[in-house]
Amino acid sequence: MPAPIPGSIAPGARKRAGSGVWSLAALVIAALVLLPILSVVAIAFHPSENIWPHLLSTTLPRYLGNTTLLTLGTGALSAAVGAGAAWLVTMYRFPFSRLMEWLLLLPLAIPAYVGAYALVDFLEYSGPVQTTLREAMGWTSARDYWFPEVRSRLMAIVVLSAALYPYVYMLARAAFREQSAGSYEVARALGAGPVGLFLRVGLPLARPAIAAGAAIVMMETVNDFGVVDFFGVQTLTTGIFSVWLESMNAGGAAQIACVILTIILVLVALEKVSRRHSRYYHSARQPRPIARVELKAGAGLLALGLCALPFATGFLLPVGVIGAHALDNPEAWVSKGLVRAFLNTLTVAGSAAAVTVLGALLMVYGVRLTGRRLPRLLLPATTIGYAAPGAVLAVGILIPMAAFDHAVADTVLYLTGFDPGLLITGSAAAIVFAYSVRFFAIAQGALDTAFGRVSPSLPMAARSLGRTAGGSLREVYLPLMKGSVGTALLLVFVDGVKELPATLLLRPFNYDTLATRVHEKASLENLGDASPPALLVIGVGLLAVGLMARAQMRPGST
Asked: What sections of the protein cross the membrane (predicted)?
């Protein structure tokens, strides 16, 4: 063996040194992602003013009760609608069944708060429904007839379910399509009818997927602020806004945020437990696909109507109402406020997408490169940000960041005599950080899957040719993963465009995005000015839905 050149570093030492750098990078990124959650817990247990006894005796039971009822109601209704629609389009052929299979995904493009504004405008006293009823029946005032309360907890459940049921629908449809036709043939031979097939065969086999979808729906419901605020339903999320912004008590807001985190962790645990005890396996042979049953005229029209109802409520109604207002107010499209909000949205959502994907790329690669245990344990923990509501993250970000900003500004002022102001909380940087933490799981999941598809022999060959770990990432992995990187960038960008609670709490003074402009204008009953930004948000959402539909249409996808 030739002697090493003096001053050179042995290959093994270089490998260990490079691995250590990537491991350290992964740990730093994980710490930044987990920082807001840990900050919330720390502030809640060490508040400057402990109002926990006051919360327990006054508003907290109401917040908790409304949140529980809203979450359970939305989860149950979304599970019923999503699983039922998935069963119909998977098992039966009826008019436009192939088209409905994809149209049922479109409500994902509609933020729930936009659906709330549209539903109230459609059903309120001066809306088209009640106006038509009064004209047709000769009624002159609200005292002449009964109409359901529009701004109520029940209507909030309907709106949230109409926007969120596609989460259950996608997972349930994939589960139904993966099942073998033999199971249903045996059940039919034993005398099971259509209802029996669903309740005794299809539903038990798809239960883990339905439970996972329902858990996502319930977590999104806990996160919601726009719908419950517009409908006047006091939940834990609205409680954070009230205690923090109205009572100026950050510790109390953090304590309510901890209650929300506890609920989220319980939901995540229940979802994992429900799947852990449910294991269903295919035989070694490729299962025969399910043959769709042709429905007769009446049954086919009924199935079409059942599938069309959630699509119409979750997509057609919001787009129709918002679109009509946009056509009636063309001047709103050229207002300075809209242009400024659009540019701000592109800035913060685009920056967050770039930062999030870059952070996820470095972390996933660092974890795969290192053999150390701690980074591998922290990788799944960083996904908790996606489950944490935006309002919770805002509490965990703004308070420590504001303290850091003031310390930096005071230091610079003392040393130079120049006051730089609040560099993070006084700009959009805090919003970008919140988006990155909230949607880190999306980028991490997409890139972790992409890394797994690259053959290990390719980076090994690159390393044998003298490429460093960074060179292998740049010259081998990234060219093969550019599709997944682009997908992750788009998904994070779309979710950032729609995010409302974190943006409302973290934005600088007089800083609007499309989401906050929609919320502010609609809260003032000005749907004319709210419609253009709402349609822009919907258009961005349609990009993500189209991307998911395209991915599911690829060969071998479910």
From this structure: 21-47, 67-90, 102-120, 154-176, 197-219, 252-270, 298-321, 341-365, 377-402, 422-443
In angstroms, the CA 527 to CA 210 distance is 36
Q: Return the C-alpha torsion angle 104, 110, 113, 114, nearest 10.
A: -110
Q: How many C-alpha atoms does 312 have within 13 Å on its Cβ side?
A: 6
For residue range 182-223, what is the model confidence (pLDDT) as tens digits?
Answer: 666 666 666 666 777 777 777 887 888 888 889 889 989 998
Identify which of 469, 453, 220, 481 has the alpha carbon closest to the alpha carbon of residue 357. Answer: 481
Burial bucket for residue 305 (CB in 10 Å: 0-12, 13-18, 19+): exposed
Dig out the tokens for 197 from the structure.
């097939």
Please tell me what DSSP assigns to residue 382: T
In total, the chain counts a number of residues equal to: 558
pLDDT tens string 63-72: 999 999 999 9
Residue with tokens 């926990």: 52
Distance CA 169, CA 172 (A): 5
In sequence order, the 6+-apart residues with CB closer than 8 A to the CB of 385 are 33, 34, 36, 37, 393, 437, 438, 439, 440, 441
426 C-beta neighbours (distance < 10 Å), count? 16
**189 φ/ψ sector (left φ>0, alpha ψ -120 to 50, else beta):** alpha
Residue with tokens 């259950």: 168
The pLDDT of residue 158 is above 70: yes
